[in-house]
Design brief:
rod-shaped; mainly beta; 7% helix; 7-stranded antiparallel β-sheet; 48 strands; 38% strand; 5-stranded antiparallel β-sheet
Length: 624
């Protein structure tokens, strides 16, 4: 300021130049514009030229025909007046916490002109205070990184920085990220053209998004240590962090239950390349909009909703939702899954009466059987069998043979001979005494009068040895010996017998001390003696027997034999492995029964047992 006003009446500035500075007509330095005569302004000096318009476009005489030139302010300029920040993120283009953005710092004169002559002053961008702490100290609501001091270039400087606001509330449900206050920044520096005097801009607010938009997709809002206490409330600094390979984020506030926001591990059934780049090999996946309805589920998590048919949906461990374990799992070779959209449904063993392929239950093996999917049990349930079949394994119901069953044993089994089966959920019903019905009979009318031949045998087997396959072989052997169809053979009982088995024709037990003559079971000429050993050719098989002659000469007692499935009966007997089998063979009348009885000799039965690959009987009796 000057003590005496300057009169510039009738003064014209023209054809001036300031090639390395400002103000081609006038340059003034100081805090305020020099005083002039009342009613006059310095800005009007450069426009008062002959034949010139009263005012130029910018009001400073710039661009007029006065022909004044300078690095800035061709006619009028001043020294430093202010720093300003340009390009500060606003609502139409907000910044994200912790992610970089650029602003421009400009050094202006009193007329808002960039002081282009300054390429020396150093400027930087810092956080501006906006809150009062609990101790009364003014503190910023955000921290600034980057913003380092840089030199102006022709009065301007572009600076990169990141802002991390302090949050007082971060919530997933409802989604919220509330900052402790506005994120303010300002430019500061030292004026190299004026004895390094301080320069400072006004504070500017950096607009930051909130809620689910607080970070770009593929990032999470990572929270740091407590930054300060404002108004008695603790605040936490936060910034957006991109998720790396093997993780993902579809919601910046997502994470695991009880933990702050974090990147989520890639589910077992997915492939995560980082950020939001997620792909899945199988199944239908959705991003959860909300959490809480399922324990362990958080909004923003990918949830496996369904798998291709025949694959198990895995999304829980011990009944609790497990984000990381989610995948479509292949069932075993003989397994199925009834619903591929429910996580509590597991792979089940294919029922005995079912057909399963590639994890899918295709239906029952028996036409007319009814199977129903039970989601509460996670299995298919056999609810009805067709006539001529009995239901087995119907969710724990025991069959007539008292076999403990499971869901995997469910089946419609053919009704055995001497029984009839009406179907549905019923089991077999025995024909009345003195009657007989063929296998797969479906009515009591199928039970016709019959005469039975009862056969009692003791076999050198344990009960465990007589599995279904051997029982079928035994049935075929008895039927062949009697010259009857296999359907005419019915087993009354199969039980482990005490040592000695059956000793006489009435089935009374006795000791195994009877003499037996191997030759009586053989074709003539097939027994050869060589010292104390005998070589027996029986049904094309040679068996060596060491024996001692009895007082009768022809009879002998077995002492030791080779391990043969056909004749190794004494060894099994001595080991206590004997099984008493009682069977009934149905004949149409007494004449056929008599013929059957005549055919059922020890030789014929043992011959058929051998042909079936079964051991010879220790004792056999038969009666009508």
């Amino acid at each position: 300021a000057r003590e005496t006003a300057v009169s510039l009446a009738d003064t014209v500035f023209h054809d001036n130049t300031a090639p390395v500075g400002g103000g081609g007509g006038i340059l003034w330095l100081g805090v305020s514009e020099p005083a002039v005569e009342p009613g006059e302004r310095l800005q009007s000096l450069c426009t008062r030229l002959e034949n010139a318009s009263p005012e130029s476009a910018d009001g400073l005489g710039n661009g007029s025909s006065a022909n004044n030139t300078a690095m800035y302010g061709p006619c009028l300029a001043s020294g430093y007046a202010s720093l300003v920040l340009a390009g500060v993120p606003a609502s139409d283009n907000p910044a994200f916490p912790g992610l970089g953005f650029e602003v421009e710092v400009r050094k202006l004169d009193a007329y808002g002109q960039v002081i282009a002559s300054d390429s020396e002053s150093m400027v930087s961008v810092v956080a501006a205070a906006s809150n009062v702490s609990s101790t009364g100290v003014i503190v910023p609501s955000a921290s600034v990184s980057g913003g380092s001091s840089v030199a102006l270039e022709h009065g301007r400087a572009v600076i990169s920085l990141q802002v991390r606001p302090n949050y007082r509330l971060v919530s997933r449900d409802p989604p919220s990220a509330v900052a402790a206050g506005p994120a303010l920044i300002q430019a500061v520096g030292n004026d190299a053209l004026d004895s390094a005097s301080a320069m400072q801009s006004q504070s500017r607010e950096v607009t930051l998004p909130s809620g689910l938009a607080v970070c770009p997709i593929g990032y999470v809002l990572s929270l740091y240590a407590i930054a300060s206490s404002v108004g008695g409330r603790s605040t936490t600094s936060g910034g957006c962090v991109v998720c790396g390979a093997g993780t993902y984020s579809m919601n910046p506030l997502s994470g695991y239950v009880g933990a702050p926001p974090s990147c989520l591990n890639c589910p077992a059934g997915g492939s995560c390349q980082g950020g939001s780049n997620v792909s899945f090999r199988l199944g239908m996946w959705e991003v959860a909009a909300t959490g809480g309805q399922i324990p362990g589920l958080v909004a923003g998590m990918y949830v496996l909703k369904a798998c291709p048919r025949g694959l198990k949906l895995m999304n829980s461990v011990s009944g609790a939702f497990s984000h990381d374990q989610q995948a479509c799992v292949v069932c075993g070779s003989n397994e199925y899954v009834i619903d591929s959209s429910l996580g509590n449904i597991t792979c089940q063993t294919c029922p005995a009466g079912g057909n399963c392929s590639n994890g899918v239950f295709l239906g029952g093996r028996i036409a007319g059987a009814v199977w129903t999917a039970d989601l509460s049990l996670g299995i298919v349930v056999l609810t009805n069998c067709p006539p001529g079949y009995q239901i087995v394994g119907n969710l724990g119901s025991a069959s007539t043979t008292n076999i403990i069953v499971t869901a995997a044993s469910q089946d419609c089994t053919p009704c055995p001979a001497a029984y009839y089966c009406i179907g549905g959920t019923s089991t077999q019903a025995a024909c009345p005494a003195g009657t007989f019905a063929p296998a797969r009979s479906n009515s009591s009318l199928d039970c016709q009068s019959a005469v039975f031949v009862r056969v009692i045998m003791t076999l050198p087997l344990s009960k465990a040895d007589l599995d279904n396959e051997r029982l079928a072989d035994l049935t075929s052997a008895l039927a062949a010996a009697a010259d009857l169809p296999s359907s005419a053979v019915v087993f009354e009982s199969v039980a482990s017998s005490r040592r000695g088995g059956v000793g006489d024709s009435q089935g009374h037990p006795g000791d195994f001390s009877e003499s037996f003559d191997p030759a009586s079971h053989l074709e003539p000429g097939l027994l050869q003696k060589s010292g104390p050993a005998f070589t027996i050719t029986f049904l094309g098989m040679k068996i060596v027997i060491e024996a001692e002659a009895s007082s009768g000469g022809r009879g002998m007692k077995s002492r030791r034999r080779s391990r043969s499935p056909l004749l190794d009966r004494r060894a099994s007997f001595e080991a206590g492995k004997t099984l008493q089998v009682v069977a009934k063979l149905a004949a149409r009348n007494s004449d056929q029964a008599a013929a059957v009885l005549g055919r059922l000799t020890e030789v014929s039965i043992n011959r058929q047992l051998a042909l079936a690959g079964l051991p010879m009987a220790i004792s056999i009796s038969a009666q009508v």
